[in-house]
């Protein structure tokens, strides 16, 4: 610094250089840390607790000096915290909506007083979050707390919510889950990653001071993500939600498999996101924005710059000019430097040209670097190292831009630059990402639903859509908790199904043989094997059905993938007509279906008739829903247009329940295809006949071939096939605890969204009562069949 | 120089993105201490010290000229060790009729500070082309070294960029050896896209400097406008290779609070 201070005015006058930036003051935050003797405890039952004899883990700032130390929680702390959360849930959920709203609003004024301390602490710990963003979150969710009963009637809070974030997550992404959970009346156990831990503790303290009942928000700290799994294991937890990087997310999913606990993840740290500049863009603004987004010190996503070939030269020329004036960015560690060097060397070997403001100095500083001439398949594009690197790829046409934008397995966000509104909207619709920012980037607001498409997550945060993960329809039963059993995941579903041996020699009495339905055609299984369907309670063979396996699933997925985009693109009213025609077809085959129900489940003909009637009504209800399941424009605080669009997931696999075999099937089928998905259904092993009889209805309908596929066989074997098929995005499952554990473990990476229901050997399940058509039940179903996309088009 | 009118039709400026960028630049922290002093002094040397009033007389023009030679108090400059570094404003700017007075005053003070004269029907530019050209010639004859011309907003707003180019080109010829500084009157151009196009056309026609406004419109220099013009300058540099002094945006950042009429410095080498 001494050298800098000696610079004379004249020298600076000539060189026009920038002065040193003053280090931001952190006096208030330091004083708060001092007050806690620089070792922070846990926040349980409305107060700080410092249990004795715990390992503590130091937290360092970017320069390497210790800021404070946090406690590593142990089992004892977890159980203490969970009982606090249970009592917190009691007192918090018994308040009225407006009381809860008032508590959250009060924190806004508390933040007005202590915002300085919060932001300084965030800066110190490297989990930057501006107080204004927190205030906006609080205001948004306090109004939702106020209106819960008015606008979300018929839903109840899930109970104790566990919010886990990874070490590199910001305080904002933690609060984006904590606050809606609180607003909906849940109590929360927050397990923040290291960097967000101190500010989270401070916020918990401030919330408690603002009148939040003791125990409604607890904060546990630990050294890694295994603490999240430990907390999840506690029997009082009812839902786990995670936000952060992909590795920790997968580890958490695997660790919580089989606990009988729904887990949802948002993998918002580290995805590869396209930054697309069309020739019709305001290039200067686009270049300024990409420089700002890609060479930030702490960037949460890796941008890949896609430029239309006709303007690539002028974009690169502008980038070169801009980069020349940029300073080096400090990397997080020396280990990162090794990764960056390796990636740059590899890029050069593949012929990429480097643009840097200066040759990289040794150490943890690295200059902003352009890697021109990259290809979407280059390793440094697919799995980019942390650091200020920006690969540049070019595309020729608008369609090619979409292909490149969709190339990465992640589906977090995209930024597109064009002055052509039609092109912008078309591209926004075709990109499979959760957030599309037109002529802008990295815009976050609690009213925008953030949803990870593809491998970027299974839940939606923010907006009204993000509230439903913290609610369940009133009257539904949550999954029963269980202890994960020791199981060999490689052996699940490998048992050969019971072979069907001909027993009686009477020629006239051979049972009827059914076919399965793949790609619009009724067919045998690929293996040609069949299995027996037994009458209720008896051993008599009622019929034969195909014994499908992995190959059948593969064929079905192939057919489904081919037809699903077209089905999704159809207008909602066209989908409605198809569903109405399906209902009509069912009506025409009413007697056959009723008969199959009678012979399969042993109910009376009257009851069977009722179930068929209910099924016809249910299909009509879904047909009516088709154009009612809509997003809309969102009230952003800035001027512009924000849209929330529900989109089909893609291909959904369903392992159907035993109960009400026809009604449950059409209910789930309707929810999935009304929203534009294609389905692969596995009828219950016990009661497959109604589903197989339904095939003739499907054949006579005008549904495109491949939208609905029905495969019979051993559910375990087919579950394995569905779970391991990368194209299938969601699985809805009724079955054993073992099957659920297998799915949770297997679908952790790449992640699939799972809806798991308990069903025991006798066919009793914890799923919905199919005969009721409670609006929240149907809403729950269709909301699970869509993923949200938010499009932000700012205007002046 | 480049006269590619296709280029003009391809120009696109996204209004909100520019506003956002302006907001970001304004949120940057300003360097303090000697850096602040040095940058402010640099700003002073970029100013055209101006009087453009109906009641201008030789006496106040004389005072203005002396102020231009010594814009900052000597004891302050001595403190910074800048008293002998020739800190003056860039020029003195007056109406054509006062050019002779200003030249006389500066000569008497033994200063080689240039005199700039507004011309071409300043500020509205709504006079016949013939008189506007004549104004330029007379100002040059009286000894103005820089001519501030205003663009014809009628042509700009009706999209007649080629006609505007021809007018500016004639001004350029009339200027002879004097620098031509083109005032865009951005407050009257309606959109950022028009500002960008006007900047490019002015540079194509041979302007040595482009300026935001006359100081007589209701809206004058603003950050977003400075950004748009600086980008146009960069764009022009990239396409033609004419070298531009680079610290444009940050120069504006400090200049704007200081003076009404921003001089975005485009030194053409």
TrEMBL record, chain A:
Originating species: Nothobranchius furzeri
Domain of life: Eukaryota
All copies of domain Aldehyde dehydrogenase, residue ranges: 56-472, 530-754
Pfam family, one: Aldedh
Molecular functions (GO terms): oxidoreductase activity, acting on the aldehyde or oxo group of donors, NAD or NADP as acceptor
Full protein name: Aldehyde dehydrogenase 16 family member A1
UniProtKB/TrEMBL annotation, chain B:
SUPFAM superfamilies: Aldolase
One BP annotation, GO: deoxyribose phosphate catabolic process
SMART domains: DeoC
Lyase recorded as keyword: yes
Catalytic activity: 2-deoxy-D-ribose 5-phosphate = D-glyceraldehyde 3-phosphate + acetaldehyde
Keyword Lyase listed: yes
Functional pathway: Carbohydrate degradation; 2-deoxy-D-ribose 1-phosphate degradation; D-glyceraldehyde 3-phosphate and acetaldehyde from 2-deoxy-alpha-D-ribose 1-phosphate: step 2/2
Keywords: Lyase, Schiff base
GO-annotated cellular components: cytoplasm
Enzyme Commission number, as recorded: 4.1.2.4
GO molecular function, one term: deoxyribose-phosphate aldolase activity
PANTHER family the record matches: DEOXYRIBOSE-PHOSPHATE ALDOLASE
Cross-referenced NCBIfam families: deoC
Record-stated family: Belongs to the DeoC/FbaB aldolase family. DeoC type 2 subfamily.
Name listed for the protein in its UniProt record: deoxyribose-phosphate aldolase
Gene name of the record: DERA
